[in-house]
Amino acid sequence: MVDDFARWRNYLVAKLSENPVLRIVGLASDGLEAVRQAAELQPDLILMDVNLPNVSGIAAARRIRELSLASKILFVSQDLDLDVVRASLDAGGLGYVAKSGVESELLTAVDAVMSARIFVTSQLARHDFTGVISARNGGTLASRARITNLYRYLCFNTCKVERASSIALRSSRVTRAPDEIRA
Predict the structure, then answer these.
(1) Distance from C-alpha of 125 to C-alpha of 113, rounded to nearest angstrom
(2) How far apart are CA 47 and CA 28, in angstroms?
(3) Pairwise CA distance, residues 28 & 97, whole Å
(4) What is the pLDDT of residues 21-50, one digit of tens each?
(5) How far apart are CA 122 and CA 65, in angstroms?
(6) Residue 31 burial (CB < 10 Å; 0-12/13-18/19+)?
(7) Taking Cα atoms as reference points, which of 129, 26, 127 lies closest to residue 68?
(8) Domains of the chain, start order
(9) What interhelical angle do 142-158 and 161-168 show, nearest 10?
(10) Using CA atoms, how far apart are residues 48 and 31, in angstroms rounded to an integer?
(11) In this structure, what DSSP letter does residue 2 have?
(12) Cβ distance 31 to 38 under 8 Å?
């Protein structure tokens, strides 16, 4: 877990402890330390802020992707700028959670990312990130991301907002290819 604010790291540790399957193996406060620990510990999942001292989370993610191929990266950030989110996904992130949505979305996002599904915070549900994902993965994950984003968008427009994220993020139930979706 990588964040430069100690209280926030402690909060995330507490939040993740709600899932007994998860075990924290390392904490870092900057991008350089994140790269070093990722290479040493080879974690299954890395939660990382975008704005970090010394080396940004995006630059650290690029380096981590080279050193720890099996590690999946989930960004947790207050920055909701679309270019930043796209750069995070392009750098190797499989997910992006807004810090303001951690209470309701973090464990769902962790589950999605650990299952190699793309997760983008519900606050950005109406935006399409499949171009970034498609370019990085040759389209493999792009269809899942498109389905998840479409499903989440439809839920936001037809369901109560507080239920939309929990409904929309269960993309494992949506198994049709994008050309089978009728919208």
Answers:
(1) 16
(2) 10
(3) 18
(4) 999 999 999 999 999 999 999 999 999 999
(5) 25
(6) buried
(7) 26
(8) 6-180 (3.40.50.2300)
(9) 160
(10) 9
(11) B
(12) no
User: Which residues have C-beta within 8 Å of that of residue 67, sequence separation ≥ 6?
Assistant: 35, 38, 39
Both tokens of 48, joined, read 């990382």
Question: Can you tell me whether residue 119 is helix, strand or coil?
Answer: strand
Residue 13 makes CB contacts below 8 A (sequence gap 6+) with 1, 24, 27
Tokens 């964040």 -> residue: 3
Q: How many CB atoms lie within 10 A of CB 3?
A: 25
Cα–Cα distance for residue pair 162/149, rounded to 1 Å: 16
Residue 147 has pLDDT above 50, yes or no: no
Give residue-wise pLDDT tens across range 105-146.
Answer: 999 999 999 998 889 999 998 887 766 654 555 444 444 444
